[in-house]
Amino acid sequence: MSAPLILHPDRLFPADLTTRSIARRLYAEVASLPIISPHGHTDPSWFSSDALFSDPANLLIVPDHYVFRMLHSQGVPLEALGIARRDGGAVERDPRTIWRLFAKQYHLFRGTPSAMWLNWVFAELFGLEERLSPETADLYYDRIDAALATDAFRPRALMDRLNIEVLTTTENPLDPLEAHQTIRASGWQGRVLTAYRPDPVVDPEFEGFLANLDKLGAITGKDARSWQGYLDAHRDRRAFFKAMGATSTDHGHPTARTADLPFAESESLFARVQSPSVTAADAELFRAQMLTEMARMSTEDGLVMQLHPGSFRNHSRNTLANFGRDKGADIPTQTGYVEGLKPLLDRFGDAPGFTLILFTLDETAYSRELAPLAGFYPCLRLGPAWWFHDSPEGMMRFREQTTETAGFYNMVGFNDDTRAFLSIPARHDVARRIDCSFLARLVAEHRLDEDEAAELAYDLTYRLVKEAYRL
Amino acid sequence: MSAPLILHPDRLFPADLTTRSIARRLYAEVASLPIISPHGHTDPSWFSSDALFSDPANLLIVPDHYVFRMLHSQGVPLEALGIARRDGGAVERDPRTIWRLFAKQYHLFRGTPSAMWLNWVFAELFGLEERLSPETADLYYDRIDAALATDAFRPRALMDRLNIEVLTTTENPLDPLEAHQTIRASGWQGRVLTAYRPDPVVDPEFEGFLANLDKLGAITGKDARSWQGYLDAHRDRRAFFKAMGATSTDHGHPTARTADLPFAESESLFARVQSPSVTAADAELFRAQMLTEMARMSTEDGLVMQLHPGSFRNHSRNTLANFGRDKGADIPTQTGYVEGLKPLLDRFGDAPGFTLILFTLDETAYSRELAPLAGFYPCLRLGPAWWFHDSPEGMMRFREQTTETAGFYNMVGFNDDTRAFLSIPARHDVARRIDCSFLARLVAEHRLDEDEAAELAYDLTYRLVKEAYRL
Amino acid sequence: MSAPLILHPDRLFPADLTTRSIARRLYAEVASLPIISPHGHTDPSWFSSDALFSDPANLLIVPDHYVFRMLHSQGVPLEALGIARRDGGAVERDPRTIWRLFAKQYHLFRGTPSAMWLNWVFAELFGLEERLSPETADLYYDRIDAALATDAFRPRALMDRLNIEVLTTTENPLDPLEAHQTIRASGWQGRVLTAYRPDPVVDPEFEGFLANLDKLGAITGKDARSWQGYLDAHRDRRAFFKAMGATSTDHGHPTARTADLPFAESESLFARVQSPSVTAADAELFRAQMLTEMARMSTEDGLVMQLHPGSFRNHSRNTLANFGRDKGADIPTQTGYVEGLKPLLDRFGDAPGFTLILFTLDETAYSRELAPLAGFYPCLRLGPAWWFHDSPEGMMRFREQTTETAGFYNMVGFNDDTRAFLSIPARHDVARRIDCSFLARLVAEHRLDEDEAAELAYDLTYRLVKEAYRL
């Protein structure tokens, strides 16, 4: 057997030859469309400073929880992968040692999207053709390390090379957006935009909530401890984010619950969530009310609203204690939308110009709740298969379970939602291939004509994303 | 490219040629079997009066919430589609204007069952071959409008042409069944039957419940405000419905909860749900008890019982206020059957001759609850994939997730559940094609022999439906 | 048409020829690997006594609730199938009569895994080639009956013929394990092991719980009515089971709830669950605490822990009253793992050497909860698709919904979980064919290389099972 080809040109297309040839034709038309990335977590300072990345391990392993959680699940201590301990305890510092450990365990990623994304990066960006393994670990390390030292691998150059037309980051209201200001002032033509993610000042259970309110007040000059002042402060920061290029807001809540309380009740609720005796029920109700407030502001300022509920954050006590938040221990929970969204939808469900994009980590909601809701309410659009479901099977289930009720036109195309910058084109490529495979099946089964499928492939890849996010 | 063929003879068959040729053979044997439609919502007065339908828009768009909800979801006001406002406010009245708007938005239905059903009607009944589009809108309108003016499109003639052997409508106990009486007295041979749908006199939260009880008393001469009189009134109306041809009852409840209370407790519960201080919990308990009472009566009179829980009716406050009930805003909710059905099943689960057909809008119940329950209890049968799941992908998931545990013989074939009369054969045709495709895969994978699959295709299309519904 | 071949060599492989030929190649490499059966319910006395089985009906129908529940669901009384009544009432005793009734209804199993397992037994073990039907019922009966009278069909001979390397049974702590002791003393080389299943002394709602505690005390000489003595008694019995070959424990709980109470609280909880006023909430909390205690003991003695929550046992009141437990009326319920497992995982989630294998009957947990949990926690592994999901479609959904997040290496291969001894190879064969079909699709879609798929087929069939269960 010859050396494996780590990136086959027909990858992800259905095996049936009739369907595969339709998929190939559809894909050929969208493969090189520019990438619209309206939702993600790259670091804007990369683009303001345009500095070189340090080394393969610190670029591809240490910051990527998809990668290190899998190794952890098989007994590799996070310390061995260079993840910093909160107590400053010893962790592996040598990037080559970390890389070799990763290479030794690379078989764990068989059949996962991580392997597909990484192989794309290895092959397309670094010209690697052999499979990563203990034997090729050093070859890989050296090749990648050398490339990272070149100007071609500076962030701004990569934006061009990766064919990214728009890249959206996520910042909270307390962020001064210095990097974004620097980018805008620099004359560089790359479109790196921010999005308004207010969780730290909206969630009473967020670490440092009260201090965050005070900072919000200080930044805006409003009395952010009073309900009216707090709302004004949001309006103020939203306007600033919008001026810095934002077209959207982003809300990560434990549930999809919304509320629509009278002003006086909201006011006293806001007082309660600032008191030491705040209850979990009040915190939940406050988050619920704030979703409706954010919707109201969106009807005023036109920012598109995104809601992704249903993650039990930092599930592992030990990992949180030793390594902090966002270390791969966020676990999805059952999530209901029908009762939860009603107050917001009753208020703004058909408000002109308002768009609310819904995400889920609970696939049972696709056909039961999300598609029927999006197939009725003018404001609703469905975000793509996301996070654990941003994978070939996951994306296919999303299409199969939502299209028949919501139609294609209540969708917003693909989000990569990643901080793994180099993998962005890989992720979009998987989405394009899966969409073309799904469409090809509909054509092969005479449920669509091929010209319709071609138009839909373009829409799902490019047009609907720009339209939904107003980019 | 030549003009698209809007109704390909191989539509919905799997692309793999081996499987497709098996599916074609299976389908050929069932394609022209008569339609048994044991559950639906056509208007019996069509068949008693045998009047012409008015125009394309009022036949195909205005009454079909599958159609207008999709346009609404993309921002088309219901007024523009001719949906009447409760306040009598202005809405579009010109059917051709409505039709043109629909034609302009027809791409929204790509990939949805609505497109497949409509294309069947366009091609098979009106001989249209080009795709509906803004360019062909008037051609379509004129062709359909002209046909509707002919005797061939009167309801009774269509019953023959559409090959419908039995068509069941749904009426509530207060309905005098005049249309059904007229039909029976007319000498016409068409079988249009009623079904007993008592929700308006069983659900204390139904609009006008108390007045409905009084009407029930007046019609039956029973004291429908006393528990015993109320039960007697049901028995009386069931007997009348049965005399008018009914073989089944139909129950649409928010949940699948049942109860089996002692007589005295039911009696006092019935008093409470008639009092101004009725609670939501009492209303739910009353509905639960009534399911068991209906089951008891079914063991007496042999009417087959159908239960379809789990729809949050009229979810949109504005749509309900402005346009009324049943305007496409019914959204499925999570539905549990295991705890809920136990009281009824403990009482009548193996009662001789009793049949309870279960439906769901929550696909998670297919493999987890419904197939195991139907695979054990003698009284239980599974209704088909329904409403949002009456679609190629939805029906396929139903077969894949129920067959292995419940077997094929605990199924009741297909229901169209529609008020869109012309689309009935289209819907049954989709079901037959999907069933044959599923069976063909089992044959291709050597999980069934082809002679077994052929027998099953017949059973699922015809025999099991007639048997289950006693038609 | 020629007589059907009841066991086609390509059965269960995908119809697409490219994929099928890959599946055939992968399967050829694992088809004759020895069977590792680490979780099941065969009777160890078969192997200690090595007696002949009595007759076809009492071997293949009467003890198999997969078989008799399906007939019951279609109205066949359990009495007619020879299931003993608790009141000693008359039931059919003639095995040939039972067999003929079964043969007459054999079409009910079309499309179910039972048919596939039974056909394997008929063809591979008894050389039958025609389909079972009323016409062939006696031929079948005579052929099987005659074979069962031969030494080749004694349990120990079958262990060799069926190629079973390890077979694990399940016993509760009160079981003296006499059969296992006899087997070990006999010099026979077959590996028949026990597993520690403590539900009768762990679940306060188990029939006879208090008497069971007393028996546990008597067997171990500990004060099993005191918390410390009770824990010591468990340690004692676990050590005994381990000495008799056990490598695992097995826990069937209504939910996945765990708790991690301070010693004094557990102590008083244990007192409460022994009192007449025990509440359902206390019983649930006690089971929850005991899962964490069992985990603690596993970290001490190295027994692998298995948890399978989510079955509503003995759902039918009449069947329980007339025929007793375990008569096919266990129905799955919705099961959540994220909140429930947190106390146990916070305590032992990364304890060195600890393994907890999770099962589910609620497929919605696959992608939402189980794969993300197993893809993070070092102790967790996923048990295979199980019970109602131990079927071609069920196993395929398991792979499709778990692999992308958890990877292949957080799996433990296949369990047959059966008391139907002869069907064990049939069940493993289905699993091997489905795994090879899934892997073949990944190869055909260029998501894996074929050499990787071959390694994975071996791992899923043999290596991961032995490793996970320490066999």
TrEMBL record, chains A, B, C:
Q: What is its EC number?
A: 5.3.1.12
Look up the record and name the pathway of this protein: Carbohydrate metabolism; pentose and glucuronate interconversion
Q: Spell out the family assignment given in the record's similarity comment.
A: Belongs to the metallo-dependent hydrolases superfamily. Uronate isomerase family.
Q: What is this protein called?
A: Uronate isomerase
SUPFAM superfamilies associated with the record: Metallo-dependent hydrolases
At the top level of its lineage, which domain of life is listed?
Bacteria
Query: Pfam families attached here?
Result: UxaC
State the organism named in the record. Answer: Sphingomonas vulcanisoli
The cross-references to NCBIfam families, in alphabetical order and at most eight, read: PRK02925.1
Q: Which UniProt keywords apply?
A: Isomerase
Q: What is the lineage of its organism?
A: Bacteria, Pseudomonadati, Pseudomonadota, Alphaproteobacteria, Sphingomonadales
